[in-house]
């Protein structure tokens, strides 16, 4: 209710019939009244929660954004309705035309803001070896099964796949996807280059070595051209189905650019559907169900060949730039966008290249590696321990425990007995040894129990047979004729009694045997339960031991590399490592029997990853929310000023232009002064120079360069213990590529000599870069904002003085407006933060070209090595490269550092321009809000009584919604504490079903079941309790 709001929220409405200037005090009185009554701007919870913890602040701000979206949507409907009703007056002049323009501008700003908020992305990407379980992990993380395809053969994900929250709630569009294809011209150029290479290779092979001036050069060119063909050929074959022989035939016929162009078009026309895809550029899919969407987009994500229309099946992945899905998952709603990258080490090298190029765009990078080989698998290790990548992340401020993590997948796959046998720790653990002994004893008891059960069951069969015989004999004896003599009768009676006793004993023995079988079965079940408990304990123990061992090794390696990066032994954030089991997660989600030891959702490791990701992205999410809320507050202010009721100082004979003219000079002066004060406060930015110590940087990188270059001839240069040599052809291919990235076909190993050296340089500067361009840079925000607030206060005071001096009748109303002017500090604070973040990001991108710069410096070295021919050329080439780098390593780093320094200074030089822009935007925002205020104050009602009445109703409608909006933003008491995006709910604990693992039971004592021919006369003592003692 309006009465619940602070006095400044909304003025009391004056009935239209009452003269707003009746009994008005003179100008002097207005000034006096100003001194007595100062409006107090509303304090919103999201703007005053700085002292709360991060998660609470984030929750408050996310709720505030939702409230703003809902209220703005209602106001938008009201304004659009008003615009529709006044279409006939669209060409009119005066206040109505101004009002229409204001409404349209407000709606446009709202739509742009909403679009900016919905398009905000925090990229969380996974990379790792092919088949490591990346797609399965992401699906479990988001809580949507088969989100990305996880094929059983070949590479499942062949292109970059992304998934974000779907803001579209239209029926049939609950799940959407946008497939972006490559540029058709790029595809045509790739085909043309392939044809040229094939023609050149054919010509080279048709030339005999003795006919060449340089046979060695011929072999090198054959190797290099063949490698390029092998790179591109799978892409062409996947889409157009052309075999190498077919392409070779058409390539040999090309002899001019025109003929190449015709051949390329001929190839493209072989697959009309592929051409249509390229012409469309973007393909969009909508579906009401996720599985329906998955079915539609799967052919665009994976590498399998399928029918796309009436033509032959083909794989479309070589034409795809990326596939972006929009789905419903609470984890994604706060702006998270998960990215599934093609696996490194993929059989098709170009797919692995896609992953590497995209990786540095990620806000959070997760390397997925199967836990069983996480410390040894070379591709995963290359991603986790890449010196170049680590230095780049450090420079970007993402190597702080929040920008990079390791997922140890397939945690459920472990052989307990094998691991225990190979674990020194477990073999020397008393508790584990005790459990193993107990398990061994129980296994023996179980074996003995089964043996006794089988023997007892066999005996019971004989007892049953003899019991039947005894009862039959007794029956026949009773029914036979009585003998004649007394002696015979007595003997017959004794025989009957004896037969009866035997029958009774057999019946009793049978009952005891049946009871014993039940007891044996019960005892065996109890033994099995005890075994299951111990096996479960051992499985947990082994899993935790294995997990901790792998984590410790990775942490140890990480700590060593961190110390090298920081050039200090001081502690650094540990590497976030999360063992997970996607398989166990889905077993529980789908209410299937759980995997042993994974009986709760938390035991699968997925909730821990989600919690870490939420915490890791809190800062970026909060900055975005601050930006959005500041903009929404501006929209609120405009509607508040437009809809507020007139006060006692209304209806002046003053025009808008008069007011604007009175304030124009102050606006101009302070636009310059505000920008200048911000630039002065930001002078410390110009003092930041992480490349200042050129001598140290060059020496540090050059000392390592020779050692690194000496290992370039190894197949696994990153492994100091593996001395296997690289093939000569591979070495030559890298030389011919000027040391740039190369992945030999079939090996899955990627070499990048330039990146090796670039990594050394980056590692020598990353500590200073992080300290200055990430840490100290952000500290400069405080003095910039202090200068902004000081100058802004002077600016607002001068505006008030201008009104007081030139238009005193407006003083009270203007002071009311000026009381809310500090709201403009919030968007400016956000803009300054964005400017600093952008400066940090742009500065880090200065180092992106370090590989290219090294390429220019080392081109003569590689060219000289390639010119070495003849017998023994491989060794002489290796020596040439190593020796030349030894001689020039100190000198090549300096021009590179100088170039980086020039680019950094050029970027810092843009800071004053950026700050002047922020200052001008702040003043423009205030002028824009003042325009709404002036419209309400000076141009409030049209001349027409009917239009006046409609406008009063419109203002009242908007005013009510603004009041509700303000009330929702103010503190309402305790709120539920939650973090949106982390509340994915899984099923509760399910019944644990552990299968009996008796794989070794048949390795013990052999059990021989000896058949019993007869029980004899010991039926009375058969199946007694003493026989159960050993069972």
Automatic annotation (TrEMBL):
| Signal peptide feature range | none
Which Pfam families does this entry report, sorted A to Z? DUF7605 (PF24564), Dynamin_N (PF00350)
Compositionally biased residues, Basic and acidic residues: 467-478
Q: Which InterPro entries match?
A: DUF7605, Dynamin_N, P-loop_NTPase
Membrane-spanning segments: none
Q: Which residues form the DUF7605 domain?
A: 710-887
Stretch list, region Disordered:
1-24, 467-491, 976-1011
User: Dynamin N-terminal domain: from which residue to which, for each copy?
Assistant: 125-385
Q: Which SUPFAM superfamilies match?
A: P-loop containing nucleoside triphosphate hydrolases
Q: What is the protein's name according to its record?
A: Nuclear GTPase SLIP-GC
Annotated source species: Gibberella fujikuroi (strain CBS 195.34 / IMI 58289 / NRRL A-6831) (Bakanae and foot rot disease fungus)
